[in-house]
Amino acid sequence: MSLFLHKSNFILRRIYPEFLWRLDDPQPTIYLTFDDGPIPDITEFVLEQLDKYAAQATFFCIGDNVRKHIDIYYKVIEAGHAIGNHTYNHLNGWKTGDDTYLENVSKAQRELRVETSLFRPPYGRIRRSQALDLLDTYSIVMWDVLSGDFDPSLPPETCLRKTIQYTEPGSIVVFHDSVKAWPNMRYALPRMLAHFAKRGFEFRAVPQLIYA
């Protein structure tokens, strides 16, 4: 049984109005995001699927995975996708001291080797004190729709159905290019892309320098 919200509710948005949850867009546009990569084969699969629909996305990369798989990382950049910071070691901000957390973000930024103003806290968990410091430099990008691909108890069909059900124009949608999410993501992502492409949606990256 899944223990997370597929759709971010108004309570979260009111508690953290300074975070970016969705984007107002008059056009039928979806903002796909991918967390935790780059990972060989898995990230490359994502790139292949996106290319089929001329889709642009935002990849929130873990610094240590960039270090280990720099060739895959450069494929993401060369394909024209946006890059976001996801810390160096996928730290949970609620369980990490501020100085350690902020230094980990800085370490990841150095590893990314490109400028980005986009940051997503792993697990969506960040202390307000950490956020206040980071908001001087980054847009803290949360999500409107969480696919749940990371949950091994969630059948792939349910992952797809819930993602389609809650996605609407302007939604920021989270998938993961990770080993854990692979069984669900490889099923849901191609079908989700096909579903919305047939309905005239475009897929774009979260713009840089957008502050909520």
TrEMBL record:
Boundaries of every NodB homology domain copy = 28-212
Q: Does the keyword Hydrolase apply?
A: yes
Q: In the record, which residues are listed under signal peptide?
A: none
Q: Which domain of life is it from?
A: Bacteria
Please give the Pfam families that the UniProt record associates with this protein: Polysacc_deac_1
> What InterPro entries does this protein's entry cite?
Glyco_hydro/deAcase_b/a-brl, NODB_dom, Polysacc_deacetylase_ArnD
Q: Cross-referenced PROSITE patterns, in alphabetical order? A: NODB
Q: Note the Gene3D superfamilies from the entry.
A: Glycoside hydrolase/deacetylase (3.20.20.370)
Q: What keywords is this UniProt entry annotated with?
A: Hydrolase, Metal-binding
This one is known as: Polysaccharide deacetylase family protein
The organism's taxonomic lineage, starting at the top: Bacteria, Pseudomonadati, Bacteroidota, Cytophagia, Cytophagales
